[in-house]
Design goal:
This protein is an alpha+beta fold. The chain contains 2 helices and 9 strands. β6 and β7 (92-99) form a beta hairpin.
């Protein structure tokens, strides 16, 4: 199976019950809470196209490059992805990052990671795109942030 289309999304959430509930709500907020997510590594197939966010059938096995960070009250958390195409358009690469970081720190880390991935492959890439979520978790709550590149399931 070689995916032909993908979209990029993100979500964040807080919950007073548990980190798992916050993560579930972050998935729902990103529009992928109904999917059975399978995490994959970081290659965009040749000729695949980015599209707008799509509704995916309930229960669909959905391949996703996922960055996730969970946290507790008082913490700032972030998760992000960057993606870029090889300069000749042969294929693309995706980097993920997460941690106790703000938007600026995550973007810097993602730049470093995508550059390293390109160097190790001996390729040059065009300018990366980013999808980053950050969250300052309020007292008495748990939090979760996600950023995801979602391959659209084929029928």
């Amino acid at each position: 199976m070689i995916p032909r289309r993908f979209f990029v999304t993100s979500g964040k959430a807080i919950d007073s019950l548990s980190q798992l509930n916050a993560f579930d709500l972050a998935l729902i907020n990103a529009g992928i809470g109904q999917c059975n997510i399978v995490c994959v590594s970081s290659i965009l197939p040749p000729n695949s196209k980015e599209t707008r966010r799509r509704k995916i059938p309930i229960g669909a096995i959905t391949y996703t490059v996922l960055a996730r960070m969970d946290g507790n009250e008082g913490e700032t958390i972030g998760a992000g992805i960057a993606w870029a195409w090889e300069k000749n358009g042969a294929y693309g690469i995706v980097a993920e990052a997460h941690g106790y970081m703000d938007h600026h720190a995550l973007k810097e880390l993602l730049n470093w990671k995508i550059s390293g991935m390109a160097d190790k492959r001996g390729i040059q890439v065009g300018p990366p795109k980013y999808k980053i979520e950050t969250l300052r978790i309020p007292m008495d709550h748990y939090g979760s942030v996600i950023s995801a590149l979602v391959f659209i399931p084929t029928s």
